[in-house]
Amino acid sequence: MGLKPRFIKVEDESVGRYDVEDDFIDSLSELDDILLKIKISDYIDNNLPEYPDNKFTTYVVGGFVMHNNESIYFAIEILKTTGSLLTLTDFQLIDVNEYLDLINLNLYIK
Predict the structure, then answer these.
(1) What percent of the chain stands above pLDDT 70?
(2) What is the dihedral angle through the alpha carbons of 19, 22, 28, 33, rounded to the nearest 10 degrees?
């Protein structure tokens, strides 16, 4: 089995902003609608803030996009260790109640 391509966003010619793990790509790839995948990817790409280094745990943050007049809620897991890029480690669709819980904890992509 071959390796899957990985994407690192580049803001300028020499510095990337984040890295993506295979589990994140696999989870996002499970969505059937290609337009939804693109919409979620664009949302993350355009709105994901920087997070402080944390060598002990990952961050879990929520987000949502409108797709075909329907709200789609999701959570992503982010790893940020000293001296490394943000790493998107996992993706999962969630329900509105889980998303509201993340908002109450201030753990959402603004």
Answers:
(1) 85
(2) 110
Residue 21: partners with Cβ closer than 8 Å, 6 or more residues away: 87, 88, 89, 90
Of the candidate CATH numbers 3.40.630, 3.30.2310, 3.30.310, 3.40.50, the domain formed by 18-104 belongs to: 3.30.2310
Phi, psi dihedrals of residue 29, rounded to the nearest 5°: -70, -20
- Please name the residue that has the structure tokens 């979620």: 40
Which amino acid, one-letter code, is at 31?
L
Q: How far is CA 84 from CA 3, 20, 63, 87, in A?
A: 22, 12, 23, 8
What would the pLDDT profile of 20-53 be if each residue is shown by its tens digit? 999 999 999 999 999 999 999 999 999 988 888 8
What does pTM read for this prediction?
0.81
Query: What b/e readout covers 100-109, taking b as 16+ CB neighbours within 10 angstroms?
Result: eebeeeeebb
Name the residue among 96, 87, 71 with its Cα closest to residue 24: 87
